[in-house]
Design goal:
The structure is a homodimer.
Chain A lengths: L10 H13 L2 H8 L3 H15 L4 E4 L2 E4 L1 H26 L7 E6 L4 H13 L6 E6 L4 H6 L5 E6 L8 E8 L1 E6 L12 H4 L9 E2 L12 E2 L2 H9 L5 E4 L10 E5 L6 E7 L6 H12 L1
Parallel strand pairs in A: 3-4, 3-5, 8-9
Antiparallel strand pairs in A: 1-2, 5-12, 6-12, 7-10, 7-11
Helix pairs in contact in A: 1-2, 1-4
The structure holds a DNA duplex.
DNA sequence: CGGTACCGATACCCACAGGGCATCGGTGGG
DNA sequence: CCCACCGATGCCCTGTGGGTATCGGTACCG
């Protein structure tokens, strides 16, 4: 607005800075960026002039972030993510592609998901919905980086920061066990009963951390986990609704002291498109 | 990642596109951007090639957004805001400047604010906090564009989309009236009593809309509004805690059917700096 | 129905910003 | 003390972003 708007920060400069700030080494950063080191040094220097302060402390032996640099690393990453999300969402808006991508943890909320898709398809203004199955913990990422528009996720397990959310329902949790297991006959258990079961180690979630990790086999999503339970290699603690999708050979036992799980529908704060709003409204009516 | 990463979108291109999409006119957009029309046309064409689809429908008489263009307008604005926020926050991180800026509606939550600042100053790791007084409805904007790091705001009045939030407390609302007013002696009132009071029109909030607008004098913030009430020009409906900051000549009467107001502390989702976290923690202990 | 005013696209040209290569200067380790 | 490492500097070049002139299509008006 007006004369003298010094000149704005370009995403290229942000990418350069983030690379250097992550590597803390101009040479390696330049290599990662596919360019030579001198222009990178100059670009950073120019960015520092433009922002009116040092971002990096260089002794010719070591590179470190200044406080301002630490701020720009955090904020710059977020800004770059926003730009990339904009790009992806625009690409996805090409004619002929599904208007809405719904991200769901593979193997979770199967019943709810089916209901939701049916209800949505029955709507008069129904737009095609693409379902994207992701691993546990990737939900937020996929939503934030523009690969999906809406997601079903679960409190308190999934990270909801920066997302807009509506609650769909809360349920208790049950242990999923091989039918023949010693605990399978119990009317209920507590978490302590499940810790260190002989021959039945807790599963370990791959991908971004966040939930308590066991020592057993590594799994990416609920579908994999259920399969491993059926094979007698581990157990699982899932929301009650998992019962509807269990085959032969698996039993469930209520876990009295497990936190209740709330299923929520979430979307990135700007993506208030009509299509997303419609899907959310449908979900809330279930 | 790897070879063939076609080339990324620059913020300059986003600014160009947003200008054209808002003006729906290449000439005016170019003028607004301080450049000539031809390079602008080319830049948009290049952006369309890069994103693999038309963003604008041009007949030589009228320019309109395609669906993809509408998406990019929404998402691009958000991305640009993120970049500008990154820039502002980095500038603010220069040594010697306050580490945390707390945005508060002028005239609101005075007591809570004082308590919070006192409590925070008493902390061992206390960093200087700058208080930014803003008009009603500007809270979110100020947080999102990087001028502030934390804000006190009020549900359900303020828009919390895209912000991370912790609740601080809920209170009922009272009507603030000139002491001599007819209703001032009542033990309680309902909202209907306040509608269309002879000679006492409801105030009108300037700035971004959102709350019910009256026909009376226009005000920017709570402080202005209280002043006008004292002058007998309007009335106000405020959270109970306003009582502590009323001078002579003003009375309060509980409003039975007014929605309770929840005061929350909010911050942008990435700005998880230690300083912000500390302030939030202090607020939660009050 | 022809003229004209308007608007985005095209053609052409220039300047400079961004990138490469060679080298310097400071610093810590052997 | 020398060498290896690393970021900064100097210098050159190319690509692209921007400017001016003009085209081509369309709607409006006399």
């Amino acid at each position: 607005m007006g004369i003298g708007t010094v000149e704005d920060v370009e995403t290229r400069e942000l990418r350069y800075f983030v690379a250097v700030a992550e590597e803390l080494h101009f040479g390696r950063a330049a290599q990662r960026l596919g360019m030579a080191q001198p222009p990178l040094s100059r670009a950073i220097a120019q960015l520092e002039r433009r922002l009116g302060g040092a971002l990096l402390e260089r002794t010719s032996r070591v590179v470190a972030l200044t406080p301002a640099g630490a701020v720009l690393l955090r904020e710059g990453r977020a800004a770059l993510a926003a730009v990339e999300a904009a790009e992806r969402r625009t690409r996805r808006a090409a004619p002929g592609r599904a208007e809405v991508v719904l991200a769901v943890k593979a193997g979770a909320s199967a019943e709810l998901l089916a209901e939701l898709l049916d209800a949505h398809a029955a709507e008069p203004d129904a737009v095609p919905v693409e379902v994207l199955l992701v691993g546990v913990g990737e939900q937020g990422a996929v939503l934030r980086d523009g690969r999906a528009d809406v997601a079903l996720l679960h409190r308190p397990y999934d990270d909801l920061t920066g997302l807009d959310v509506e609650e769909l329902g809360t349920e208790g949790q049950v242990a999923v066990l091989p039918a023949g297991h010693a605990l399978a006959g119990r009317t209920d258990v507590v978490l302590a009963d499940l810790a260190d079961l002989p021959g039945l180690p807790a599963p370990r979630w791959s991908g971004p951390a966040g939930r308590p990790d066991g020592s057993g086999p590594e799994v990416r999503d609920h579908a994999q986990l259920l399969q491993l339970v059926a094979l007698g290699r581990t157990f699982a603690v899932f929301p009650e609704s998992v019962r509807s999708q269990l085959g032969e050979g698996l039993t469930t036992v209520p876990v009295l002291d497990a936190e209740p799980v709330t299923t929520v529908v979430a979307w990135p704060p700007h993506s208030r498109s009509l299509a997303v709003a419609g899907l959310v409204r449908t979900a809330l009516r279930l």
